[in-house]
Design a protein that fits this description.
eight-stranded mixed beta sheet; 21% strand; seven-stranded mixed beta sheet; 17 strands; alpha/beta; Polyamine Oxidase, Chain A, domain 2; 429 residues; 2 domains; 13 helices; FAD/NAD(P)-binding domain
Length: 429
């Protein structure tokens, strides 16, 4: 009998396990993969470390920043792009980063203009008036602006790195994200996707896990978790059993339908789990020959296989370009020439000498990338999921209150789940 079983060793699970174990609770941490990290993954490619999943942090994100300061870890400076390319109205345009911002900025301002009004206090969804926007998709909002073909493509290209399906993703999540940076979409993009963690996400994860006293069980997929009224029984693949007084379920939203939860969760939460989130994007690393001029590029969803690209690192005389594809199936990542053709749309003459990636969409333990919630879920079903379900608590970036979809949100929910369990009255333990 453990005090707590934590299921899933992404950032949420690793933080929850550490906090509970160093507070004196006996904790077992079960992870389906042969590594910790979840949808963050510092792997090897081209003879160096690269991030195949979530990678970025920022000093304005309180939860991840506290962890970085705790372990003396900093952020790496990004490689500044000297030129920006954007595909709009059937042609590729170019300019400096400032010139592009001058064109795209007013369009994104219009798109998220009501962010502060809808979420005056992003930490308190009860203070938000969201009934109208929770019926609205990203596509509905884009259509409502009645833009020219050129302006629509420019705006689409700015949003595209965070879009898979305009008709399935709710606009409320974009507005919440923008509200956290005072309604400034450009500021949100800096906080969400610009500054890599120094030494990679693995460095921070290893530091957290190194302080933890939890028992770690890798290669241990979970198939069921049951609150029987006296404790929690966790069933693992192969019919193994783990018994604990409490459980923290820190698994990606899209794999929860593979886990039987007893007693059943409330209907709004059950629907959220069964519908799953739609994100099936792809991140590709391309090694480009030579130290090319740093650039950034963007393209609308469905009009080019690479929807965002930027030079990220120099390596052994070459350049590593990070590419985001809104649809993972739109580009054969193993086809070096196909990736080269896609990038040459923006930078003619560029030579790709290798590619690397991790397929999150087909990975059985992720079944997608970060969560973007469907209309109606962000402010209704997701908050219900953050509530205790008997002796079971859910955690993870997919259901975070503010940093939904990111590392900061994952840490937030893991720490909160640990605090909730630690505060449980003794008679309930």
């Amino acid at each position: 009998m453990y005090d707590v079983a934590v299921l899933g060793a992404g950032f949420a699970g690793v933080v929850a396990a550490r906090d509970l174990s160093i507070a004196g609770h006996s904790v077992v941490l079960c992870e389906a993969r042969d590594r910790i990290g979840g949808r963050t993954y510092t792997g090897k490619a081209f003879g160096r470390s690269v991030e195949f999943g979530g990678a970025y942090a920022h000093w304005t994100q309180p939860h991840v920043w506290r962890e970085l300061r705790r372990y003396g870890i900093g952020l790496s400076a990004p490689l500044e792009a000297e030129q920006t390319y954007w595909l709009a109205d059937g042609a590729v345009h170019s300019g400096t980063a400032a010139e592009y911002a001058g064109i795209a900025g007013p369009l994104t301002d219009r798109y998220v203009a009501d962010a502060r009004a809808r979420f005056p206090q992003p930490s308190d969804l009860a203070a938000a008036g969201t009934s109208a926007i929770e019926k609205e998709t990203l596509g509905d909002r884009l259509d409502s602006l009645h833009l020219s073909a050129y302006d629509r493509d420019v705006l689409d290209g700015m949003l595209a790195p965070l879009v898979h399906r305009y008709d399935e993703q709710g606009v409320a999540q974009f507005l919440l994200w923008a509200a956290t940076t005072f309604g400034d979409w450009g500021a949100f993009l800096e906080t969400a996707g610009t500054w890599p963690i120094g030494g990679g996400t693995k460095r921070l994860l290893d530091a957290i896990a190194g302080e933890s006293e939890a028992e770690l069980r890798l290669s241990t997929p979970v198939t069921a978790v049951e609150d029987d009224g006296t404790g929690v029984v966790v069933t693992t693949r192969g019919n193994g059993r783990v018994r604990a007084r409490h459980a923290v379920v820190a698994l990606p939203l899209n794999v929860l339908s593979d886990v039987t939860v007893t007693p059943p969760v409330a209907q709004p939460v059950r629907t959220l789990i069964e519908e799953r989130h739609p994100m099936k994007t792809s991140k590709i690393w391309a090694r480009v020959k030579g130290e090319i001029e740093p650039f950034a590029a963007g393209a609308p969803v469905g009009k080019h296989p690479v929807n965002a690209a930027r030079t990220e690192y120099r390596h052994d005389g070459d350049t590593l370009v990070m590419c985001m594809c809104s649809d993972a199936s739109a580009l054969d990542r193993a086809d070096r020439e196909a990736v080269q053709r896609a990038l040459r749309t923006f930078a003619p003459g560029l030579e790709v000498v290798g590619t690397a990636w991790h397929d999150w969409a087909t990975d059985p333990f992720s079944q997608g990338t970060w969560a973007h919630h469907r209309p109606g879920n962000l402010t209704r079903a997701v908050p219900r999921m953050r509530e205790p379900h008997g002796r079971i608590r859910f955690a993870g970036g997919d259901i975070a209150a503010i940093g939904v979809g990111g590392i900061d949100g994952a840490i937030e929910t893991g720490a909160q789940a640990a605090r909730d369990i630690a505060r449980t009255p003794a008679e309930e333990v």
